[in-house]
Design a protein that fits this description.
The chain is mainly alpha-helical. The protein contains 13 helices and 4 strands.
């Protein structure tokens, strides 16, 4: 893990300062991380407003679009980072080693966060957000270093999506049979993702019989990252800014339409990361990117409204890790007496936020307050020109 400051010489392992980067990209990344923290920390999971909760199974909510957006942005960053380092004369083998190191750190950090503070080795969860980012980042980076041709990247993306569809729809599962014939298609517990995860990591899955970030569903998630890589290549072309914006908008519309139509036969499902979900979520991500690119880079509306998002976006992984660790601390600390104990989070929510208007609105206020608390250390780092990079 590396840290850069304005008083230090910036090494080749350090990202350039925010002022030298695509501003709109930091803004979108910051919005994504802020919203991710918001939806991951409802005051009450049961009483929170529906846009701030994941869909129970098939279907989607705004919350379901957050993670794929961040993974999509990882793909864009891969292009910008690698091309910048190649321009400085770094050999490909060095870039490959860096990708391995970064993926290992991200994966390990995800496991460390899951185990904090007790680290139950027998039941420690292996899957997670940072772990999926690590795997997708590594595969996409290695592929990009091997072959940067658009046709190759598109071909691999299509192979991931169609291959996953074929696997989950038409390949029989041992001991269970054919999906859609012997058991319901996309059954919560009987699907290739859940079956494989139960065999590999029994007792280590988030939802006991399944995990929303399982091994097999990483295959279509790689396509999400590769869509970001393709977008990064599009943004680096010599085309004019308005032509690039038009391309982003066309991609957004295409993703929304194609993903929605595919969802008729292969339902949109975040927990299984279905192929239709990948395409549909990519459409929404491109729409957000288009709007920010148009407003910030083309129209030059870079006023104070972008500042908080740049603060979050410049130290995105730190912001996420801090939010996750703080959430765990609030859950494990218990207070009370006379046989009545509750977590510190529950105490704060029920005593301070829940009575305001109604419990659902109180849950939203808790979430917004939580984002504000996480903003403070990110602001300190930003003002000191410290940018933590894995």
């Amino acid at each position: 893990m590396a840290v850069s400051t304005s008083s230090q010489n910036i090494s080749k392992e350090i990202m350039t300062k925010p002022s030298q980067r695509l501003v709109f990209l930091d803004v979108v990344r910051g919005m994504t991380i802020a919203f991710m923290i918001l939806v991951n920390n409802n005051g009450s999971e049961q009483l929170a407003y529906w846009p701030l909760k994941h869909a129970d199974w098939n279907g989607w909510t705004p919350t379901d679009l957050v993670f794929p957006t961040f993974l999509f942005l990882v793909g864009i960053t891969i292009v910008l980072s690698i091309e910048s380092r190649i321009a400085r004369g770094e050999p490909r083998i060095s870039l490959f080693r860096h990708a391995l190191q970064r993926a290992a750190i991200l994966f390990s950090l995800g496991i460390l966060i899951h185990g904090f503070p007790s680290y139950p080795l027998a039941t420690l969860r292996i899957y997670g957000v940072l772990q999926r980012i690590a795997l997708c980042y590594l595969v996409a980076t290695v592929l990009y270093l091997w072959n940067r041709r658009v046709i190759t990247l598109v071909g691999v993306s299509i192979a991931c999506l169609l291959g996953y569809w074929i696997l989950t729809r038409w390949v029989p599962i041992p001991e269970f049979g054919m999906p859609g014939r012997d058991f319901p298609f996309l059954d919560k517990d009987i699907n290739w993702v859940s079956v494989v995860d139960r065999r590999l990591f029994p007792g280590r899955l988030l939802e006991n019989t399944r995990d929303p970030l399982g091994l097999i569903s990483t295959i279509p998630a790689i396509a999400t990252c590769l869509f970001g890589v393709l977008t990064g290549l599009w943004l680096r072309t010599a085309r004019g800014m308005r032509e690039k914006a038009a391309g982003l908008l066309a991609g957004a519309i295409g993703g929304l339409v194609l993903g929605g139509l595919w969802g008729i036969w292969f339902p949109i499902n975040k927990r299984l990361w279905t192929s239709s979900y990948v395409v549909f979520a990519a459409g929404w991500t491109l729409l957000v990117i288009f709007i920010c690119y148009l407003v910030i880079d083309i129209k030059k509306h870079q006023g104070a409204w972008t500042y908080p998002w740049k603060v979050f976006g410049s130290n995105a992984i730190f912001a996420y890790a801090f939010a996750e660790l703080l959430s765990i601390v609030l859950e494990v600390i218990h207070v009370g007496g006379n046989g009545s104990m509750m977590s510190l989070k529950e105490l704060i929510y029920t005593r301070i936020f829940s009575p305001v208007v109604n419990p659902s609105f109180g849950s939203l206020l808790y979430s917004l307050s939580y984002v504000l608390v996480c903003f403070v250390p990110c602001l300190v780092l930003f003002r000191k020109r410290i940018f933590i990079k894995i």
